[in-house]
Amino acid sequence: MADKSERDERRRRLEAWRASDRVLWRASADQRVGERLAALAADAGGVYDLDEWTDIYGGGVVAEVERRAADLLGFPAAAFFPTGTMAQQVALRCWAGRTGNPTVALHPVSHPELHERGAFGAVSGLRTVHPTDEPRPATAQEVRDFDEPFGALMLELPLRDAGFVLPSWDELVEVVDAARERDAVVHFDGARLWECTTHFGRPLDEIAPLADSVYVSFYKSLDALSGAVLAGPEDLVDEARTWRHRYGGQVFQQYPAALSALLGLERELPRLPSYVSHAKVVAAALREGFLEAGVPWSRVHPEEPHTHQFQVWLPYGADALNDAALRQSEETGVTLFRRWFTDRCPPGVSVTEVTVASEGLEWTGEDVRRAVGAFVERVG
Predict the structure, then answer these.
(1) What is the C-alpha to C-alpha distance for residues 200 and 269, in angstroms, rounded to an integer?
(2) Aromatic amino acid beta-eliminating lyase/threonine aldolase domain: which residues (predicted)?
């Protein structure tokens, strides 16, 4: 549990970000409760008839989210889950029963391995293996050559902790084919699949059905309160609903999350390609800005972002960078960076994640370079 100093520091950051006139994006969690509720009440009528009855253990607006998601993703059925962690445990558990093999091949920096406290093994009886530990998606050859059988190949698209990186379309097709050659099913961890269409040059209903099933999140890119869906064949989704109940995911009422998901599909989803395009402008300007500011070394990864999110690496400690970022927000009303970390970084190097969303579209390359200069001045 966070102590008082940590809570105070978080409050200070939230106040600074909220008060900033210029940001590259605003996270929904940065808002106060009243603001979030007021916005949902004001906007939800545009995507759903608010005179309809509330959902009870599914149905109603929850069923509408499931229908919309299944159509968008090109699958016959979808089930709404309170979290992606639960959705993916259920999906891989169901596939293990069908294949007879509880081993899941995935990347060692994929979300279930880094951020779910070993849930696949501790809760679902699954075992994980890694076809590669390189900081990129596995190749078809690595999948073919892996030296033990697995029942499912799980691909995180994009691979967030490696820098929101994606394979090319041809590489993705080859990897899927390689898994099928080994009689394995393929599941896409598509928490951020929504923004992959620009990189792949394909619509969602062509990308997602490459896999046997897919999970997508509604809050990571679509600004919803929470929630996810698992999409796939009808028999898999029917079984997933049963396991959802057993896992405690049969929530009595979910209309706030479901309404916010519909708003995300209606409003944010069509705008994601513009965010991806402008992220390339921001990334290039960041590189130029660090050069102009005399930073001895920097890395923007990928150099040309695959989605609207990417990493920035700098040769300073996280404390110094976090202090500079926060002071820039408070002193200038400009938030360029949010939080810096040292996880999996070489000594003396820190990394941050940059997201470009609607507010970021207003930034020119010159705006970014100027903000970089002001940031570096504060690093000291």
Answers:
(1) 16
(2) 61-287
